[in-house]
Design brief:
Strand content of chain B: 35-45%
Strand order of the largest sheet of chain B: 2-4-5-7-6
Number of helices of chain A: 23
Helix content of chain B: 10-25%
Helix content of chain A: 40-55%
Order of helices and strands of chain B: HEHEEEEEEE
Shape of chain A: globular
Largest interface: A-B, 70 and 59 residues
Oligomer: heterodimer
Structural class of chain A: alpha+beta
Radius of gyration of chain B: 20 Å
Distance between the termini of chain B: 46 Å
Radius of gyration of chain A: 35 Å
Chain lengths: 845, 133
Amino acid sequence: MPCQQTGGIISTYGQPLESIKYNGEHLLPGQMGHLFSILAFVASLVSVVAYFISVRQTDELKKASWAKIGRWAFITQAFSVFAVFATLYFIISNHLFEYKYAWQHSDRDLEVKYLLSCFWEGQEGSFLLWSVWHSVLGLILIRTSKSWEAPVMAVLAFSQICLGSMLVGIYVFDYKVGSNPFLLIRQDDPSLPIFNNPDYMQFKQFMDGNGLNALLKNYWMVIHPPVLFLGFAATIVPFAYAVAALWTRRYTEWVKPALPWALFAGLVLGVGIMMGAAWAYESLTFGGYWAWDPVENASMVPWLTLVAGIHTMLAFRHSGHALKSTFFFTLISFIFILYSTFLTRSGILGQTSVHSFTDLGMSGQLLVFMGIFTIPAFWMLIARGKEIPQMKKEESTYSREFWMFVGALVLLVSALHVTFFTSIPVWNKLLDISGLRKLFGLEEFAPPTDVMLHYNKVQIWLAIIVGLLTAITQFMKYKDTPKGVLVKKLGWPTLISAGIAVLIGWSMRIFYTDYGAGFLLGVYLMLFASVYAVVANITYIITVLKGKTKAAGASVAHIGFGLTLLGILISSSKKEVLSIDSMNVLSGYFSKESGQNSRENLMLPKGLPVQMGPYFVTYRGDSISAVDNDKTLYIVEYERKAGLDAPVTEKFTLYPDAYLNVKGQEGITPNPDSKHYLSRDIFTYITAVPRKDIPADTLPYTPHVIAQGDTVYFSKGFMILKNLNTKPTQKNYHPEPGDIAVGAEIYVHTRDNGDFNINPIYFIRDSSFQANVPDTIAPLSLAVKFSKILPNENKVQIDLKETREPMDYIVLKALEFPFINVLWLGIVVMAVGFGMAIRQRVRAK
Amino acid sequence: MKKTSIILLVVIAVCVAGMVMMVGDFSTYETFATARKKEGKEIHVIGALDSTKSVVYDPAKDANYFSFHMKDKSGEITRVVFYGTRPTDFEKSTELVLTGKMVGSEFHCSKILMKCPSKYKDEQTAYSAQKNS
């Protein structure tokens, strides 16, 4: 719907733009979108107030009517949010580049399936996504939460005010609140002179957008953010129940309705995180699925506390113990979500993270968002803590709830460790602000130099404890376990697990000595613990549950968890770099240094097989992708054979690809390709390619002074100066009257490419200006210049230049990940287990 | 004393002990001058690419050798060697965070984190090149 509208509208920031009549802009969608975002904001305000009053009312009739107002206000805000989402999608999919968001995050070449990725590339779009999920969950809660509706929805609607404020983009006393995704590009920086031109849309830079970051052009990036944000959004539901319980003093009833939501949040958040890991594995070139990057850590921490919370909820439901810790874990999980939002969006991670969002100047607002939930929630927990009922009798050491509680604490320790070190930039900032740095003369802290080692060496021990508890605790009974039961039921599984662990360790030759003997001990223990978790839970399903699947959700999830640990352990301790460059190690870099910095990039000249582990690998050439013109595919052929001339036992071709020099970017953005086996992946990606757009024309001309009949040799043959012609003709020479021109008729003979005649010209124009017109033979990349006449010697000077044959090659990295499928299988099994548990809990209503 | 309290105390004790042990893992941001005093110790250096000096990466010769010069915050310029490939958009970086150590007069780094200006405004985007991870 092309429409022309006059300029001079009131800009979002309240300053009237100069009354220029801009052509080609589509202003209606933006105005509608902004209108709806303001409506959503206002409606959520109304909803909070109405629900709040409803909670405070004692009169049932008034309570109900206020709740009704709150409900309709929330429904209004939900549909406004959906409308905002649809409008922004309309703008992106119709390539309305007058909008900054579309210009910044998309372009015309983008495949349709990636249009959604543009959406969440920016902060505004991802906030919007979060808000959409909150709205969906809110609509469900309105229907299902019954007597909890008013207080729970008040909390949820309150979060919608916060999220909504991120998108309004208005100024309140010179402070910019939120960032409006419907901002026109000319409103973003109206001082730019280009925006004085009413036809600025016709300029080249606004005809097409900036495009999507090539790293995000991956199908995981289409589904990972929605799932992750659904996980984020779902975490608020148990939080809202906990707050509602503290607020209305119904301290015990809330756990029952909150439990399935906590399970749902745990399921979706966990799957969302691991989809991100799958994306990292498939399209980022970290060489793995997990790099302990702050952004990854920040989303894992709430999952850990959420899982801890699920376990204390269960402990409370069956024994009456651990209610206070249930409150704590439920509250802290959502607070950690907000904290992770702050870390990844405020720009504070700048020097430590690879992929945090760009800073939109909303740090202050994000801090308020965090504080406004944290302070009242924890203040209520502390102030009313005494009122929370507690069991008089202590839990027995032989009870399930006791060890569930211990496990929850271990998960908390894990979460705290990760948070503490991920927050290093925050500590630095706090030290600066508080002045303590000056006081004690402290240096600025930096993250550990080997991040992987740092986290692994701590987390492995926690993983061992959690793995063992996962195996053993199921066999305990709530309240008290009869003596002897554990030994009787766990004896065989323990022995079998030990046997399997030894078998795996021995057959796979797990001798991970990189980090010393202590770490290797940890690896062996974790191997046992993860196998134990799998075996014991399978045994539990068979012997205790007698194969009944109805109550098996927890056990299935635990099996998945054990498999996940096992997959992580094997794939990372046996990860192997195939593309070790051994050639250059001998030539000069063989030192202590080279042992540590193993040389993991290998150059493959086109057509030449290079040995890489058991494979001979040949780079066959490249081709442009059929669907995406910016993408170049590299054809890499793997042949498994004992020697260069030995028979080929296996052959496959991988097509790692790369975006080359996209949108003025210099260099490549590679995407790996993998050969998947059941037991391992051969993972290959390009790390460097020669630049083809810059000719390799660096060799200088070599002069040859020759007479008629003389021969000059060059690399591919020779040439003879046959004749000098005073009336030369050549396609690149345009004679003018008064020219004195001489052409050299040269015969060229080559060994492989046949014979040629060339005719470089030397001329004097206007009696003084000397010039020449070279001649070239393209197939030989040979250029010949007639540069001088030496009349006294009766000779001429011919200059030759042979462009060095541009060498075609790729530099790649190839890794082997054994048993990575165990990890993915573990995730799937765990998700199924969570799903079964949700079903069981919802049915139990 | 209740068992839960004992366990909480044990956990807190373990955490504190762990933190104390972990403090050694904290690295610091240094300049080349201070890094030289701690030769062989892995540290971080923040600075910017010195674009007047040559940036060397020739995969035909060695696919794992990339060198350039960086000017640190004190203004000192030092040659940096990275055993890996040249990161994308390296020349456009406005700030570099290197992880590595001084070896003689050269700084050998194992990780380069770079910040590039976006094309439209001065927003910062971080990219990084990293090996062994």
